[in-house]
Amino acid sequence: MKIVVLVKEVPDTYGERHLSPETGLTDRENADNVLDEICERAIEAALGLKRDGDEVHLLAMAPASAEKSIRKGLAMGADEAVHIADENLKGADLTLTAEVLAKAVEKQGYDLVVAGNLSTDGNAGVLPTMIAEHLGWPYLTQLTELSLDQTAKGKRSTEDATQEVEAELPVVVSLTESFPDPRYPNFKGIMAAKKKPLTTLTCTDLGVDPEDFSHPRLIMTEASQRPPREAGTKITDDGTAAAQLADFLAANSLI
Fold it and tell me: How far apart, in whole angstroms, are the C-alpha atoms of residue 12 and residue 16?
């Protein structure tokens, strides 16, 4: 069985993150970019599912500069990786991203697609489902547990209950942060990762035309910097704080 984990390089949440005023996109060139933590958890989960004869691959759609982050996933224990690097995909919306990744999954012949439920930069949470729709596969989302036998079985927590879900392979699954912390690559893994196969693909290789607008596309038309915050109003409680607060809310048409 061939398991593939969708991985993504994102700006480090501990650093400053800004939008480029020229493109309206995240300014990744001036950010500290890292492999998204939820992707690391997904890699850890996939490695835990691996049995004799199985392979765990990584799949990323990212700029050429993301190779370091992809190699980190290989150092964790993945067998090989596919890197879709194409300047025509810069700023791709979810619709185009899902189409491209689904084409890559088909081309590589994967049986199980594992993804994190939310990336730390986009927070959309719909990409795994969109990929499954392109593939015509079942999908199990927001899982807190996952196991494989003849089928994929998992658990999903809701406010009222824990759901047990199951689907035939091939299948797309998305995992939450309930999965165990990822392992740290050791020296042996880091050295081995340098020699592991990393295939680079383009839109042409996948038969995708980024300029095809016959499908709905989200296009950025304008971006601006967030306006600076104005100083707030302090209310000192001298026994009239409630009245002062009510007056402030009324003056600003908030009540």
Answer: 8
Q: Where are the domains of the chain?
A: 2-206
3-state class (DSSP) for residue 199? strand
**In this structure, are strands 33-35 and 198-201 parallel, antiparallel, or unpaired?**
unpaired
Name beta bridge partners: 168.
Answer: 151
Q: Which CATH class is domain 2-206?
A: alpha beta
Q: How far apart are CA 57 and CA 6, in angstroms?
A: 9
| pLDDT tens-digit series, residues 112-139 | 999 999 888 777 889 999 999 999 999 9
Cα Dmax for the chain: 74
Place of tokens 């999903």: 156
Say what the pTM is: 0.82
How is residue 34 written in tokens? Answer: 């890292």
